[in-house]
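Example record used in the benchmark description.
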Amino acid sequence: MRRFTLYAIILLAVFLTSQPAYAQLNREQPDALQNLGIDEHLGEYIPLDAKFADSNGDSVLLGDLLEDGKPVLLNPLYYECPMLCGLVLDGTINVIEDMVWKPGKEFIVISISIDPEEDAELAARSKENYLSQMDSTTKAGWYFLTGKKSQIDKVVEAVGFRYKEIEDTGEFAHSAAIMLLSPDGKITRYLYGISYDEFNVRSALYESADGKIGNTIDKVVMYCYQYDPDSGSYAPVAINIMKLGGLATLIILGIFLGSLWLREKRKNQNSKTEFN
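Model output (structure tokens):
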């Protein structure tokens, strides 16, 4: 009962704050879990030469996974995490299922294990477990990676994702978040928690792709919103809405005046015909 209560407190903290939540509790002193969290490195790049193994056991460089025009959703985790990582994955899957844009088509997803002891076989089992209901395009566009500590740390340090191994348990304490990258690996946005709003994720992907994905309606909608770091979400931008409203007014006015001009032109032509 005590363990369940402590888990409940962690979940509540994740929902109510953006402060770090821990993947596993332990009996160590609180100071062992200090200095966790995320340092945002917006505008910096992930190391494209970092080397990992994919779920097929093939060696890959991060840069080899990137595709022209497709933004990246990056998800640091570890596959045997007893709770928090699974919740982040579930939240990511849920929001992807709500989106029209899909991995493998408009963007890609990269999940990287922070545990160097995990291998490609475990990554493959995790991928099958989480993505079994997904279509082949989504599966092809979502990578589950494992690697050596030196390569893992290159990536997590680049994105500012701080974690700590808990002694005697082999588990890790870390925060709950996903990162958005541009198609060339530049860090563009951080989204926190274990549940993600579809509009926020779609807006962050659109922003990360520099407007190269989505249809005309998406482009118009995204123009009216801007990321608010205080709320951690996208909020309406009044000036942009006013600009679009003004443009719409001009278009409507132009159509109205044009129709009047055409009517008057036809009237004059008819008058000349009757006179002749």
